[in-house]
Write a structure and sequence with these properties.
about 160 residues; mainly alpha; 2 domains; 7 helices; about 55% helix; about 5% strand
Length: about 160
């Protein structure tokens, strides 16, 4: 795994928690002490410290020292890298109005689609049992979803 990928994994893992996202939202307003970050939450200071350590490890927060206080500030560099990674897929998503789950490029011939899907299934291990959708359009959306997951490299 590359360092960029590892840093992105840590960034997205840190952003997956609503408490940590709220802390970052507070830091968007400016520096804050640990106690100021803890104020809106009904949790212990050790629990708050664990959240801060996750944000620090992911590079999203920088803790400094000013006399007795430990003000924290947001580190925009890691957020910028995550946004740059997401921007790669923005064109794909925006290129299909109303179809966020579309997976194949519009110019891909239909005969190439099944082989790509077949390869994706064999690469991901044993086939998952398919549910029969009630709506026929849902079946196509499910196929598109599976293809997009394989194309971008993660499940959602």
């Amino acid at each position: 795994m590359s360092l960029v990928s590892d840093a992105l994994s840590q960034t997205f893992a840190a952003l997956s928690d609503p408490t940590r996202r709220a802390m970052l939202a507070r830091l968007m307003q400016g520096e804050a002490t640990v106690n100021e970050l803890a104020a809106p939450f009904e949790m212990s200071l050790p629990a708050i410290s664990k959240h801060i350590k996750v944000l620090e490890k992911a590079g999203l927060l920088i803790k400094t020292r000013q006399a007795q206080q430990r003000p924290c500030k947001i580190n925009g560099e890691q957020i910028r890298q995550a946004v740059e990674w997401l921007e790669q897929y923005k064109q794909l998503w925006e290129g299909r109005p109303g179809r966020l789950d579309a997976s194949e490029p519009a110019d891909m011939p239909d005969k190439a689609k099944p082989s790509t899907e077949k390869r994706a299934r064999s690469a991901s291990g044993p086939a998952k049992p398919k549910r029969t959708p009630r709506n026929p359009s849902t079946a196509r959306e499910k196929e598109d979803d599976d293809g997009l997951q394989q194309q971008i490299g993660f499940d959602f």
